[in-house]
Amino acid sequence: MTRQEILDSLKDVLTLIRPSLDLSTVNEDSNLTSDIGLDSLTTLLLSLAIENKFNFKFEGMVKFNTVGEVIDHIIDKMK
Amino acid sequence: MERYFENMLSAEELAQVHYIPTIPEFVTWIEQKWHDLPALSDTVNRCTYAEMCDAIARKRALLNNLGLAKGDKVAIIDNTTVEAVEMFLAVTSAGYVAINLPAQLPAPAIVGCCMKFGVKVLAAGPMFIDAVKEAPCKVIAIGDMAEKGAPVAVVSKDEPAAIFFTGGTTGAPKGAVLPHRAIMRGALNGVYAPGKQLGCHRYATVLPLSHVFGLICGTMSALYKGAEWVAAANVKDTISKFPMIKPTYLVAVPGICEILMGLIKMYGVGFLGGNLKYIIAGAACVPPKLIAEFDKMGIQLFEGYGMTEGGNLTSGNIDVKERPTSVGQIYPGQEVKVVDGELWFRGDNLFLGYYGEPEKTAEALTPDGWLKTGDLVRFDEDGYMYIVGRIKNLIILSNGENVSPESIEEPFYKCNKLRDCLVKEDELDGNKVIAIEILPRMEEFANTPWEEVEAYFKKIVDEVNATLPTTHRIVKVTVRKEDFKRTGTMKVSRN
Fold this sequence. Notes:
The complex is a heterodimer. By secondary structure, chain A is mostly helical. Chain A contains three helices and no strands.
């Protein structure tokens, strides 16, 4: 998958978690907390949804700051 | 309503459980009562009650061999693990005082806690032990135990058993000292629920042992019932293994319930394993909509109310369909009264005070032993309680954590381009979140486009967020053009 395809998949998940989010504003630099509005619990939901969608397990709890960092990790896991 | 909680159990089950006032007596009782039933599981390995109590006895012997005296503090730092449960029960059944440290604490804070509480021994899980080697006390591995077990200690019900961190009634984190009677009263009260309860349930454990709700209702009550307690390496892995764990019973905060509902909407109700019957939710307000959504799936979500200082459970509501906004009836073992609208209570479940803070203890406890909760309540004609407001200035997050807004505002005042700020509770897509409103010193931004002013403060928020625990992070940022409403002394008004 390309970075753009992963970003699009993430947007599909994000829209379920944050229905009022304007997806057109989401890019790799978006901060998960202050731009997308995820707190520790919705970050947990995001990580569970990513694990299911991309079929891998995060090791431990997820601590990412930006969407780009999440994409980096997914690419790393899919290698 | 008389015997509201006791009457939930059948006469046969009610005859089997009674109030056991100390943890040493409890450990002895569960070993005899539930001997061969499965007790604890990490989803790979499982032990029976007999095996668990043998490990507890051997951990007690290890602690005794370290030369500890009765009442000495033993801190525990680990994820929600089988070993952490066994160590907690070993410490408290040996007559020492347990401090379950939150797993997200950074290493310097762990060392600081050990100093503040005069901790003699720190039992650390494998993921933590290297980081806490500098702690000013003896550090042991949480899985360590002696060859042979030691008997339980003799303690009185009023002796301290554990210290829990709490935002308390006035904001800054404090150590609430709970005696044996309080933990055990809360544990027994957590047994009461409709339907068969004894020797038949499987708890998936999603709350930390450092929180009274996770430790008392989520763990001690499970062991009282002879249930199987199951937890994977962390809450994410535990939830992702629900289809395999097949929990029948869950103790959770509303935020976790929201996550489960989100997963059900994405993947179907089968994601929960198919056997879940009851969810006990508390530590924050439960949205009635959530109760109704779970009800449609045949899962009963009951709401409770309590606080660390009251051994976790003060009231509980199983009649959520009829009274969805009530926190229910008062649990046994307490007296309650309403003073100027504020709930006061006392009883077996009451704490002893805040560790090393007599002034704060005196603010919370009256001389004749009533706890002033800071919560404004009313009761209906049938005795159901409703929370109508809070005296204290705390944000209760949907994960159950209490956050003092002042503690989050403090670092922002280091920014000399900020005039004032206000941290408060807000809502985003139906979830409670922490929000901040910032009033700039506009003279610092002369001729600066507004977007740049907003971007400047958003960056400051990101920087402060990076220093905060993930649960305390600011999710919503508003930069104000107009001044705040102010009090007579020109402070920012919080109302």
